Structures are given as structure tokens and as C-alpha cells.
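call fold(seq) -> C-alpha cells
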Amino acid sequence: MKTERVSQVVLLAGAGAVLAGAVALFLADGMTGLRGGGGVPSAPGPAARAAVAVRAGAPASLPELTALIGDREAWLRGHPGDDASWAVLGAAYAERGARTGDPAAYPKAERALRRSLDAHPVAEGNVDAALGMGALAHARGDFAAARRWAEEARQRAPRRWRVQAVLVDAYRGLGDQTAAQQALARLREMHTGTAALTRAAEVYRDRGWREDASAVAYDAVGRAGTPTEKAACLRRLGDLAWERGEPEEALRQYAAALELAPRDAPALAGRARTLAALDRADEAVRDYRAALDLRPVPEYALEAGELYAALGREAEARAGYELLHARAAEAFAHGVDQSLVLARYEADHGRPLTAVAWLRAEWRRGHRSAEVADALGWALLRAGRAREALPYARLATEQGLRSALFAYHRGEVERALGMTGEARRHLAEALRTNPRFSPLYAPQARRALEALGEPSGPPPRR
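ret:
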């Protein structure tokens, strides 16, 4: 049976998560009050509540977000020159698309943002629309474009905290940890809310600073001002616990998140991943189905398909893979880059050389995160090119991120090259990091480690 990847959504910078709270990034440090023009509604109600939430940098609930979209659409029919409202509408379209897994929302977001820029160019100070374009580029997987838009905004508004927030996201996507950390430091000087704390948790996680990541993630929960925002922070704690190999703690955090937001697809997928690792397959299948109903993104389809394959339910696995391809094709049609998730599928279930070609193209584009390095190294190994795979496997594991999956991949690359001491160390590291990192990979790692036997000499040199 081909390998299965239940933990990969935690490791991917998938488009479905990157814009949660994007409306906040447009307005939180720039709104002066509620009014009909200037991008925000004047009447009380769900749309106004959404606007109030984003003033604090918090994500709005989906019903409130939908109300805000309707309010701005109605306003703009009579006030088509209101550039601020076009920027808000573009942000809201993009966030709703990300939260529902609907990539068709992204072209609508881009059209609205460009209407804003047509009415008020960046050169004349339209920083909100520039940052919106940056956040949208990040959601589509174009991290270099996200950086360019944020840097253009920084030239005109160097003290706007939202500029640094978009830069943190862009640099993480590009794999530039030093620049991401520098942008984070500037962000935290300017802003103390959850937008800064949640990004701090992600940057610290990338560096392997698990205790620091957990500490700021807990702080974010305490600072959260709305149920939607608190649920997102609790979900992040669940993800961090899962990666540490603490599935029971992860389940507690996901349950708390789902109490506040029962239709939160990432929390459902996280709980499904954790339940699968605990051999609670029926419950895991239930949660994957619920997550896919709410947000049918390729990442969840791949995870669900591979779980079905691990259970021997081949017809359902094929259906999952077909959904993966259908959703990825739709995403590509709307400008969303799904190369990483498709390459992971091809490496394990299809054409490894095709995966190599796609991932090399990503590398040339400057997308050199640990996730891309790991995927490229693994695809090269699966294509029978272990010697070429080794530098990428090393890069993925030596940037700081403590991933059981990455350590397992490196161990298998080293085992294929006859590097028994190194392979033994990294396979053992994978199992120490998260003993249940995959219902299939963890047992394979144990079997590989047993096959290598006990070391017969001194430890390998690092």
C-alpha cells in the first residue's frame, strides 16, 4: 500500500487558512469610526459587528462577514468611487473564499481591490488596497508577489502594523526565517493583539521554539475578544499539541474550539487527524467528511483519501483523490497555486517525476520553505534519486521546525543511501517527536528502525 499523510495539513501553508481575519488586516489600525462611507457601515447589526471586530484585529464570524459583504455591495451601487469600501469588499470576498474553500471568490476579491486602486492608487496613499493585494497573493500561494505588495505599502506607511503582518506571512511562505523574525519583531513593537501573537506562534514554531510558540498561543487565547477569534486560537493550540506528539491534549483544544465554532473546518480536520492517530478511525472519518462538507479543499481531500487507503477502503480513497484533483483544478483556474499538495499526492500515489518537476519550479520561484524542501526531497527519493534528495531532506530538518514527518523522510533518504547511523538517528527522532505522527508512517518508521538494528560503533558525527 502506498504511503499515507494524515499530518500534512499542519505542515502546509494552504490557502484555506491564510486569510482568516484578513478583513482585520485591512482595517484594524486605520478605521476612525463607523460610517456609511470610508469602507464601513453606519447602521447597527451584523455588518457593523463585523466592522467592530476587525477594529481589534479579530476575524468576523461567517454570517457577519456575509452581512458586511452585502452592506458594502449595496453601498457601492450608489457610491462607486468609494475606494475604501472597494478595499473592504475585496478583503471580505477573499476571507469568505478562504474560510469556505471557494477559490472563485479570489477573482472577485482582486476585481474589487483593483477598483479601489483605480480610484486611489498606491502612489497616492492607498495602503489598504496594497495590503489587500498582498494578502490575496499569499492566499493564492504567490509569496513573492505578497512581499512586493507589502513592501510597496511599507514605503508609504512604515508605521502601519498591518504592513509587518503581511510581510511575516510572505517571508514564511518564501522560507526566509530571518526576515520573518525581523518583521515579527517590528510587528510586536507596533501591535499587541492576537494578530501579532498568532504570527509569533507560527514563527517560533518554524524555528523549533516549541515552548515559546505554546506560550504566545496561550496568550492569544486570553486576548481573543470574540468566539470566532478564540476558536481559531484554541485550534492553533491543538495543532501545536499534535505536532508535539500529545494527541490527548490536541483533542482537548480542538473540542474547546469546536464548542465555540462547531463549523470550524480546520478544527474538524485537526481532530480527524488526531483521532486517526489514536486508532479511532470511524470518528476520524466522520470529522473528515464534516470538514470537507464545510471546506472542500485539496489538502483535506488528500488526508481523507489516504486514511481510507490505510483502512483498505480503496473505493473511498479513489473518491478522495478524485475530489483532490477536481478541487485543485478549480483552484488553479482561479489563480491559486496547488503545486505543493498535488506534488505530495503524485510522489506517493502517482508520478514522482512529475512531482519533482512541479517542486523544482516552485523552488525556482523562490518558494524555499521547509515544506517545499521536504516535499522535493521526498519526491526525489520516490523517483529513485536518493543522492539528489539528501540536500533537500537536510534543509527541511535543519531549519528548526521539529516535524516527525520531515525526520522520517530524511531517515528514509539516508537509509536508501546506506547511511545507517544517520538513518537510525532520524527515524528515532521522528518517533520521539510524535510517536503517532501517522497511522501508516509511524509503524513503517518503527519497522525501518528495527531493520537497521542496534548501532555497532560510536554515534555518527553530525
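Residues 314-333 form the longest helix (20 residues).
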